[in-house]
Design brief:
Layout lengths: L1 E4 L3 H17 L7 E5 L10 H8 L4 E2 L8 H4 L11 E5 L5 E6 L7 H19 L11
Parallel strand pairs: 1-2, 2-3
Antiparallel strand pairs: 1-4, 4-5
């Protein structure tokens, strides 16, 4: 799950990176949910549909409201005020790591390190067994 906004420059860096991860790992069970907050229209704002189209996003994008509503909507993320912030959730539904913050491509060494770290984490999480659910009657 990633939290950001189309008005956020770092979110513009994260979107194509996450789209590449989604394409690489979706068939193994990876799901990405982007919860962008919206801000009033300005010269820096891209409506969510334009943001999705710009980066060809094929993962789920759900508008989460205004940035100041974030703590009320995602109560487990106390005082969240950095965009983007990503949480990695295991097959068991528990948060495994987070928050993870993007390292911009302008710093190629750090960005490549981030890509390796996230790819290794996804490999580990996707290798976890899929929990079974017992149906009770």
């Amino acid at each position: 799950m990633t939290i950001g906004g189309s008005w956020c420059p770092n979110c513009h860096d994260e979107a194509p990176f996450f789209e590449s991860l989604y394409k690489q790992f979706h068939t193994r069970g990876l799901e990405i949910v982007n919860l962008p907050s919206k801000r009033p229209i300005s010269s820096r704002t891209h409506p969510p549909h334009a943001f999705i189209q710009r980066y060809g996003l094929t993962y789920t994008v759900l508008v989460a409201g205004e940035p100041d509503q974030l703590n009320e909507k995602i109560t487990q993320a106390n005082n969240l005020n950095c965009w983007p912030t990503s949480f990695f959730i295991g097959r068991d539904g528990h948060v495994k790591t987070g928050p993870c913050r993007i390292r911009r491509p302008a710093n190629p060494v750090a960005h490549e390190e981030l890509k390796k770290e996230v790819t290794a984490l996804l490999e580990q999480l996707l290798a976890e067994p899929i929990p079974t659910q017992n149906a009770s009657r």
